[in-house]
Known about the structure:
Chain A is an all-alpha fold. Chain A is built from 14 helices and no strands. The mean pLDDT of chain A is 94. In chain B, a hairpin with a 6-residue loop joins strand 4 (137-139) and strand 5 (146-148). Chain B starts with a helix and ends with a strand.
Amino acid sequence: MIEKAFYGDKKYWSWLFFLGAVILIAFLFYMRQFNRGLTVTGLGRDVSWGFYIAQFTFLVGVAASAVMVVLPYYLHNYKMFGKITILGEFLAIPSVLMCMLFIFVDMGQPFRILNVFLHPSPNSPMFWDTVALGGYLCLNILIGFVTLGAERKLTAPPKWIKPFIIISIPWAISIHTVTAFLYSGLVARPFWMTAVLAPRFLASAFSAGPALLILLCLLLRKISSFDVGKEPIQKLAVIAIYAMCLNVFLILMEIFTTFYGGMEDHMSHFKYLFVGLDGNTFFVPWMWTSSILAIVTLILLIPPAGRKNEKILALGCITLFISIWIDKGMGMIVAGFVPNPFHVVARYVPTLNELAIALGVYAIGALIVTLLYKIVLSVRASIP
Amino acid sequence: MSIKRRDFIKITGLSTLGLVAIPASELLAEIAKTETSKSGKKLAMAIDLRKCSKEEGCTDCIDACHKVHNVPNFVLPDGKPNRKDEIKWIWKEHFGHAFNDNQHEFLSEKIQHIEAVVLCNHCENPPCVSVCPTKATWKRDEDGIVMMDWHRCIGCRYCIAACPYGSRSFNWRDPREVLEEQNTDFPTRMKGVVEKCTFCNERLSRGLQPACVEACKANAIVFGDIHDPKSDIRKLLSNNFTILRKPGLGTNPAIYYIV
């Protein structure tokens, strides 16, 4: 089955070579970081996590969102998702791999990564996150390839795979919950210390993930003969916009509690994001972009007439995706550190080196998703 | 007989599962382990800011600590201190920054001008220790010092995110590049690991006081076992009003301040 990724037309190969070139350049930048240390990033003693960890957090959500196609298809026997489910699972695989890579490039001593397993620390949410992500990766590889293999042979998937599929559903929820626990249990960071963080993460994941899947399906239809059909895309659109409404609702909950309560420790982080603090307004345009895009998304996709038009749907999915990418990535992570424990506002802007490495990780993700989708498309094309 | 690719993948998968089983058993042993006995000793520090602030601009404790522990001093090309990559174990912070929950508009001018000496609080419930994914930082049972293993630290900086006192520093770059004179009795660090004050555990084991305590000519820092009712630090605490940094967080710091 894997061999199918080795046959393709000129366009396919040029795309792969392009991604390969991006990865290679990014690798050179990584070598620079590896040799000089993380000083080549914009990070420092006050903002000690930044662009890398932001991408990690965001991508855990994309990975978890596969459950939004797996659950209806396998648990509710929603046949319409038959063609799309494997695409969701095969999107989860590169997403988890990118998460792992973003953690890896963020580490000061990456070659010591096995210490996490040699000295397991059940007190640390990071230990559990590693377990959850690793397990989720294995589950998706197993389920994806077994079900696709069965499909190729025109048989039903073997019975033994069913328990794994069922386990993968709560497991998907767990990866993002544990990722939220990384942040929400820290007394040092009032911005993150909120019980609504895990629900917010899940809501934003279940809207940004399906939005990306819709965009990928529309793209596949354009560049290949593979069409998942109109109805599954419409169903996904409903899921994405409902989850987006829930996400916006939860953000408003957070803002109410923070500002009606009026605790300065909590408010200062929001002020930094939306109006600037002590003259530092770096984030203000980004956060307002995110907020306006969120409103645009709601206007475009809530009316059924809007989302039924696939052009509007595609636009809405793009605005949704960017809105959450800003808010849940950089906004979420950096605002946790600003102001710092001394109530001093620190400045953080990612460097070119940092962005190049991040781009490389995304290119690896794009490469894997291309290979996996190529396998799916070839298998499907060979079925009479 | 040749092994098919599929079989190879299966065997590899099963072997990997076997590898996972080893740390898993260690993990179970860890969960079963209950809290070890408390010896009763708890090291703490009292800093008399009245005495300290009399010596305006004094940095003796900071210099002594950073020298004995090979803490690098990074400067920017223009000669200004490099705040981004900065490493510090003990330093001075405006009163309003160090004690931001005690800060208010009408605080006496004398207090507002205090530069408080801050360092790792060696908390009784250290959040940095709970979050460390490799146990590279831990609380010593015998005296409550929060320790650091620079050889195990993976540089994930979770402890920095978890510390409510900003006490931890990360080696963003190689510290050895700028160390002019080294104390060969104490290790230097490599880039990519976290470090902080360890109450001079290496000096304590030789029967010495922490370097900062020894260096303070105003005798503003008193160090000792807070569980010993006859200790100097206990006498000081029972005769003076003391405050802690962020006491509401439940970390229970071991650095007491007399204002």
